[in-house]
Amino acid sequence: MVISTGHASYVDVSDRSLLALEGTDGLDLLQRISTNDVSKLKVGEHAESVLTTEKGRILDVLVVYRASANSLILAGLSKKGGQLNDWIGRFIVMEDAKLTSLAG
């Protein structure tokens, strides 16, 4: 749910899986493995995107928030943060990118 106060918008992600993707290659990595164009997100902006399996099945729907130049917050619709972490993590080979779970 997006809450707008006129000057700022907030996305309530308390019931979702929550990850931080940090590093200089994080945005490029997400651009390659998700369906929406997130490459032009500016700091403070967010967009929705979908992660799919190799067979085109939906794995999760993400809200991608660009917190800083090299930091993204990913909120998945599912509560399966470990599955989301594993899925994205398998594409991190030589990229400067690190995933961290933000869920308690």
What does this 3D model show about the protein?
There is one protein chain. The chain is α+β, with helices and mostly antiparallel strands and 104 residues long. The chain has 2 helices and 7 strands; from the N terminus they run βββαβββαβ. The radius of gyration is 13 Å and the shape is globular. 24% of the residues are buried. The mean pLDDT is 86.
Question: What is the approximate shape?
Answer: globular
Biggest sheet descriptor: 5 strands, antiparallel
Helix and strand run? EEEHEEEHE
Across the major sheet, the strand order is 4-5-6-3-7
Count every helix, treating DSSP H or I runs of 4 or more residues as helices.
Answer: 2
Task: List the uncertain runs.
Answer: none
- Which value, in Å, is the CA radius of gyration? 13 Å
Structural class: alpha+beta
Strand content: 35-45%
